[in-house]
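Feature request, filed as a ticket because there's no other form

It would be nice if the structure record came with a short human-readable summary line next to the tokens. Right now we just get the raw output. Example of a typical job, pasted below so the devs can see what we mean:
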Amino acid sequence: MALKVGYVPYLHAEPFYFDMERRGLELVEKLPSALAEAAENGEIDAGPLPLVDGFRLQDRFEPVSGFGLASVQKTGSVFLYASQPVEALQEARIGVMDGASTSLWLLKVLLQLKYQVQPSAYVTLQEPHDAFLAVGNRGLRQRRGARGFPQQYDLGEAWYQWTGLPFVFSRWFVRRDADARDKALLEDTLYVALEDGVNAMYQLSSPREELLMLPREVMLYIQGFRYFLRMTEQRAIEQFQHYLKQLEEVR
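Raw output as currently delivered:
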């Protein structure tokens, strides 16, 4: 039976899936916020799990080498839009779009620990809100701003300015009890994606009209991410874990 792999339908994730279907891996489309539940209930055997979910699932899932997703200095697609400066968001209502996972925890860390701001609630985008978080392809489509919300903050950039580190959004995990041959196939496919998948994004000749992006914009966007995590990214993960613990103490 083919390994079932969580497929995240965002532009920055596309390089990972470059050769998967051709090599017999079954893709199951899920937003980042739904990946952990899908992993827990057996819908998927592997995927780029949001970092925070990966922490708690390590008894059943193991990392796939160093594969993951990290913004280098800014994301270009994970934005907080606000009606007033971030320092004035005390007791504000923050709208959160479907799909946000690690991005939401990053926002909470930044607001409470960096900016010393405590919102009153995190709500859906259908409810009244003073600011909102946009991620993935929606963040890309709104990268030039959102009407009615003149303040715009790239969360990856805010993290980098604060810590001097990249920010790790996800890591690839596979079920520990998966067949060893399937694990090896997945790892090999991701190594191919690391080179050929990324290169394919650089060589686009047509615009991505659904994202309002020209080929050069796509290339520059992809260049802002790392797809293999090394020592610097590991330090970033440890720093984020440290801040998450502080966040629990602040509550």
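Something like this underneath would help us a lot:
The chain has a mean pLDDT of 94.
The chain has two domains: 4-71+166-250, 79-163.
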